[in-house]
Design a protein that fits this description.
The complex is a heterodimer of chains A (335) and B (305).
Chain A lengths: L19 E3 L2 E3 L3 E3 L21 E3 L16 E4 L2 E4 L7 H15 L4 E5 L4 H11 L7 E5 L16 H11 L7 E5 L6 H11 L3 E4 L3 E3 L2 E2 L4 E2 L6 E4 L4 H14 L4 E4 L5 H9 L2 E6 L2 H4 L3 H15 L11 H10 L12
Helix pairs in contact in A: 3-4, 4-5, 6-8
Chain B lengths: L1 E2 L17 E14 L2 E8 L11 E6 L9 E4 L2 E5 L2 E8 L4 H7 L6 E8 L10 E7 L3 H13 L5 E6 L8 H11 L2 E6 L6 E2 L2 H8 L7 E6 L2 H13 L3 E5 L15 E3 L2 H10 L12 E3 L6 E3 L10
Parallel strand pairs in B: 9-10, 9-13, 10-11, 11-12, 13-14
Antiparallel strand pairs in B: 2-3, 2-8, 3-7, 4-5, 4-8, 6-7, 14-17, 15-16
Helix pairs in contact in B: 2-3
The chains are: A alpha/beta (335), B alpha/beta (305).
Chain lengths: 335, 305
């Protein structure tokens, strides 16, 4: 049984403590924007108060600018969308010189997403950005499904993940968050490898590899055969992967995959996520992250939960026996 | 420990450049427009910036919607009525999203994000020649009216495969008469007006007009490519309104690439971040924020799909 039971006596919504910890980084609340769905932050700054949400995970930056894949890059599917963007980004220099100062001025907590085809490229990025004052943490994109080199397949090897994170760790004093692919046989293997390598947290999960075929032309609906599936369609899948990953490690997990409401976010937290990321929902409703935060606060208040972090892993603790996974310790806290 | 706290109520001292918003709007008019097309008019609340010709909005059905993502829709008319905006759209219910849209009735709610993208640069000097293909007529009628307000007369070329597909011709005639635009019709099958496509019609029309010519066009991509090539070959400038599948519509997802011309690619590489509105990607322009209206020399028309 859980060590916290649901108190039904409502508390004042303004007094709910929403802050959560990702290693040494304290987020004012658990709602982040997912990488690739919020640009470099300033694109949405006039509709979302970046200083009011937990943080902004920026578009994955690579050493050199990348032009991205040929069209089509997006295709809608049932309750979701496929994308094959191909890590289009402005490159390290412009990210550091133009994008970061702007985010800093907007008072966002910035989690910079970095991506590389090799461990060496990731090292180059962290050498350049590792001590930047405007960055609160780094999310390493080990899970892009849409690039020929250095994508989810390449990084699905636990030994490579562990080795690489161990190499990267000394290059920054900021938390390192490893973003994992769901397309592995057992996400607990990659999750544990990241923890052993020294990752401060995990993000579970990136998009699922998916396909859609235009039968009239007998061609993919994307420029490439496959893309990454996101949106409400993947929420139950992502939730299960997030739960498995969170149960396998002691470091905090950031939940991601189809989150579009406060209840979605709370489910991920109950499953063991310390914080969550809102992604595709922003394409539908630019203010989605703000609304998810508001709904989360209201639910916690109505259910008498004065601290958001009290909810983390409650489901997991109750079901630890089912999988034989250790589940008593809540993420980000000592057992 | 790293903490990021901010005194409540203190706004960041940064100018926010963007003006688009997502608002709730109500359906005002929904009706047949002929040839399988429909006319939709929405009441938009105050605070929504007035779109200019060539700009678009993202339309999203209020839940329950059979589709997830909003649909980009080119703006076909804008009227002000007691502080509010009435915005019209000409569309064809061809997919699941647009078919659901066609079932909405007056009073129903939709979510509208906009105005988005860059419209036609109507202030550009020269003789304005507006070139419409099929339902592409809608934003160009809006452009003709904007030109009339600036006391400029336009030549209006309207083409389609057959006379039936000259969408809303009576409406176009009436609006152009008020705007002082001269209408030139073309059909591929010769059932109305000039027998041939709009480019052949331009061949005949252009020598009678004062140079330089500045073309503003909207229609199928094959027609726009032909107009772009004609403009390049004849020393005219041409602004073409492109379409693409989109997700966000706001430049964030990078989902709507169009191939840049080699000239544009070289310019982006040289100018880098300094190239206004080019966002620094030398290979691809984004339809949503770099466009949807592009000057002919910006795109590689051999690779436009």
């Amino acid at each position: 049984m859980s060590d916290v039971t649901l108190k039904r006596k409502a508390v004042d919504a303004r007094r709910v403590d929403l802050s959560v910890r990702i290693g040494p980084l304290v987020l004012r609340n658990p709602i982040l924007t997912a990488s690739g769905t919020f640009g470099y932050g300033d694109e949405y700054a006039h509709v979302v108060d970046l200083a009011a949400i937990g943080g902004v995970v920026t578009k994955t930056v690579t050493v050199k600018p990348r032009p991205g894949n040929a069209p089509q890059r997006v295709a809608e599917t049932a309750a979701g969308m496929l994308n094959s963007i191909g890590l289009e980004n402005v490159g390290l220099e412009r990210f550091r010189d133009e994008k970061l100062p702007r985010l800093r001025a907007l008072e966002a907590t910035v989690i910079a997403s970095i991506g590389g085809e090799t461990p060496e490229e990731l090292e180059t990025l962290l050498r350049a950005l590792g001590r930047e004052p405007g960055v609160g943490a780094f999310e390493v994109n080990f899970s892009c499904p849409n690039v020929a080199a250095g994508g989810a397949r390449y990084w699905a090897d636990p030994a490579r993940l562990e080795r690489t994170i161990a190499q990267l760790k000394p290059l920054t004093d900021k938390p390192l968050i490893a973003k994992l692919s769901p397309d592995v046989t057992d996400i607990r293997d990659t999750a544990r490898a990241c923890e052993r390598g020294g990752a401060d947290a995990l993000t579970a999960v990136n998009t699922f590899v998916g396909m859609a075929i235009d039968l009239d032309r007998m061609r993919s609906k994307l420029g490439k055969a496959t893309g990454g599936l996101s949106g409400p369609a993947i929420k139950p899948l992502a939730l299960a992967r997030c739960w498995e990953a969170a149960a396998a490690v002691r470091i905090p997990v950031l939940g991601s995959g189809g989150i579009a409401s406060g209840r979605d976010a709370l489910e991920f937290m109950a499953a063991g996520a310390t914080a969550v990321q809102v992604g595709t929902a922003t394409f539908v409703e630019p203010e989605a992250a703000s609304r998810v935060l508001m709904e989360m606060r209201a639910w916690l208040a109505a259910n008498g939960i004065a601290r958001a972090s009290d909810l983390v892993g409650r489901f997991r603790a109750e079901h630890a026996q089912e999988t034989g996974m250790p589940g008593a310790a809540r993420n980000g806290e000592e057992p | 420990m790293i903490t990021r706290e901010r005194a409540p109520g203190r706004a960041p001292k940064v100018a926010l450049r963007r003006t688009w918003r997502q608002v709730r709007a109500r359906v005002r008019i929904q009706r047949e427009y002929g040839a399988g097309f429909r006319w939709l008019e929405l009441d938009l609340p105050a605070g929504f910036a007035a779109p200019v010709a060539g700009q678009f909005v993202q339309l999203l059905l209020a839940a329950p919607s059979p589709v997830l993502l909003p649909r980009p829709m080119s703006v076909a008319s804008v009227q002000r009525a007691s502080g509010r905006l009435r915005v019209g759209f000409l569309y064809a219910p061809v997919g699941e999203g647009t078919r659901a849209l066609s079932r909405l009735e007056p009073g129903n709610e939709v979510h509208v994000t906009g105005p988005l993208g860059r419209g036609y640069p109507l202030a550009e000097p020269g003789t304005p020649v507006l070139v419409a293909g099929g339902r592409g007529v809608a934003p160009l009628l809006m452009a003709a009216e904007a030109l009339a307000r600036a006391r400029r007369r336009c030549e209006f070329v309207f083409g389609a495969r057959t006379s039936e597909l000259l969408v809303g011709l009576a409406d176009a005639r009436a609006r152009l008469a008020r705007a002082g635009g001269r209408l030139h019709l073309a059909t591929d099958d010769g059932s109305r007006g000039f027998h041939g496509d709009v480019v052949r019609l331009l061949d005949g029309l252009a020598p009678r007009l004062a140079t330089p010519l500045v073309l503003h066009a909207c229609g199928p991509h094959a027609m726009l490519a032909a107009v772009a090539r004609w403009a390049t070959a004849n020393g005219a400038r041409a602004h073409l309104a492109m379409e693409s599948v989109m997700a966000c519509g706001t430049g964030v997802c990078r989902g709507c690439p169009l191939p840049r011309s080699s000239e544009a690619r070289a310019r982006v590489i040289e100018a880098g971040a300094e190239a206004a509105a080019l966002k620094g990607n030398p290979e691809w322009a984004m339809c949503c924020t770099d466009g949807p209206v592009f000057e002919a020399r910006e795109l590689d028309w051999d690779r436009v799909e």
